[in-house]
Amino acid sequence: MNARLDHRNPLVFDTHELGRRPGALQRISRSVEAPSAPVFGIEEVIGVPAGTPVELELRLESVMEGVLVTGTARAAAEGECVRCLEPLRQEVAADFQEMFSYPDADDRGRTAEPGDDAEDEGMIFLEDGLFDLEPVLRDAVVLALPMQPVCREDCAGLCPDCGIRLDEEPDHHHDAVDIRWAALQGLAGSLGTGEKDNMGGAEAGVDEKQEK
Questions:
Q1: Is 25 exposed, middle or buried (0-12, 13-18, 19+ CB in 10 A)?
Q2: What pTM, to 2 d.p., does this model score?
C-alpha cells in the first residue's frame, strides 16, 4: 500500500475547498523547490537543479469524476550545450493537465481503495481530498525540455580535429588532404625507394665488372 500523502509537502494540494461541487473553481499560485531525486529533467543532459524555485500557476476545477487540474510551471534549467559542451541556462515553461479522480464508494458510502484494475487504466486518485502534483509536474518538465540543448541556435561547436571552440576562432581550419591523393603519394614514395635500391644495385654490378 502506498504511503499516505502529507499535506505539508508543498507539491501536495488540498481540494476540500471545492466541496465536490461540479463547476467549482479554485486558482492557486505557489512557489516550490524542485525535488532532489529523481532528476527533474533529462539525466546528464539538462534539468532543473534540486532546490531551484519552480513557479506554479494552477486552476482546479471540480467535475463529476474528480478534480481537473490545469497549470503551468516555470523554472530555470541548467545543462550542457551538445555542440560546444559549454554550460547553459535556459528558462522553461511546462504546461500540463491531469484528472485526479474521486475514489469509488461502496453501497455504504465508505471510500474504497483503488484497485489494480483502476491503476491499469492510468487513473490517478485523490487521497482524502489530496493529490500529489510531483509525478505530473516531472513528466511535464521533461517534455518541455530540449532533447538536444544548445547555448544558441548558431553555435558552431568544436573542431573535430583538435577540439577548439569554433565560435572563439571562426577562421580556424586544418589543411585537408584527400585520402586518395595521400594513398598515391605513399605509393609514389615506395616506388621511388625501390628505384633507388635498384639503381644502387646496378651501380655496384658495374663497379665489380670494372674491377675484374
A1: exposed
A2: 0.70
The C-alpha atoms of residue 85 and residue 75 are separated, in whole angstroms, by 22
Domain that holds residue 18: 12-144
Tally Cβ neighbours within 10 Å of residue 191.
10
Q: How many beta carbons lie within 10 A of that of residue 195, not counting itself?
A: 10
- Upper half-sphere CA count for residue 67 (Cβ side, 13 Å): 28
Burial code of 52-70, b = ≥16 C-beta within 10 A, e = fewer?
Answer: eebebebebbbeeebbebe
What is the number of domains present in the chain? 1
pLDDT single digits (tens) 20-63: 899 999 999 999 999 887 778 888 889 999 999 999 999 999 99
